[in-house]
Amino acid sequence: FSKTLSMADLNVVEVLDSDEEDQLPPFNKHEWIGKNKLYPRHPPRELEVYCARQLCIPQKITNAFPDKALNVAAFLRAELPAKSPALVFPAAETCFSRLTPSMDIYQTLESLKTRPLPPMRLVNQLNQAARQAILDGNLSVADSRFPGTRFSFWVIATWRWLIEMVDAREEWKVAQDWLSRR
């Protein structure tokens, strides 16, 4: 098992790992955020870094779930959240809120461990819309399955990462079942 990252997540990591970040001019929120601007096809680097910081999974969260160095047997025993079987879900654009997150990092971690993960299709749509939502002045991601629940933007990448982890574990379980029947 390895912690895989999608292309969007890799872009976030590449932006944040860049050595040039220290040399960038400061990001002017008053120029960009809530100014009815479209997220540019070729954004200025400081805007790219600002959005990447909002979307990056905190280390406290990644540390709370199985590590990529875990052996297969331990990975199969690891506790992971269930995936939601929902077939109907809201449009991604309606999931963003101008209100601050209602949960801190510890409350978010608890909800990630105990609540079903949203469908990957919704998570992908949220990921595609996130940078524009940030530019529009939104401060959080609302989870319509739990009214009043608003998360920091990094929950989108976390949901995607956890869904990929659950899918990987399911594949390992199928392989283990096949081997045990031999």
Fold topology:
Layout: H1 7-17, H2 29-32, H3 45-55, H4 59-62, H5 72-77, E1 96-97, H6 105-114, H7 120-135, E2 140-142, E3 150-151, H8 155-180
Antiparallel strand pairs: 1-2, 2-3
Structural class: mainly alpha
The count of β-strands is 3
Number of helical elements: 8
Number of domains: 1
For the terminal residues, how far apart are their CA atoms? Answer: 23 Å
Low-confidence spans: pLDDT under 50, at least 5 residues? 1-11
Mean pLDDT: 87
Q: Order of strands in the sheet with the most strands?
A: 1-2-3
Provide the gyration radius in Å: 18 Å
General description of the model:
There is one protein chain. The chain is mostly helical and 182 residues long. It has one domain (7-180). The chain has eight helices and three strands. It has helices spanning 7-17, 29-32, 45-55, 59-62, 72-77, 105-114, 120-135, 155-180, and strands at residues 96-97, 140-142, 150-151. The chain has a three-stranded antiparallel sheet, with no helix packed on it. Helix 7 packs antiparallel against helix 8 (155-180). It starts with 6 loop residues before the first helix and ends with a helix.
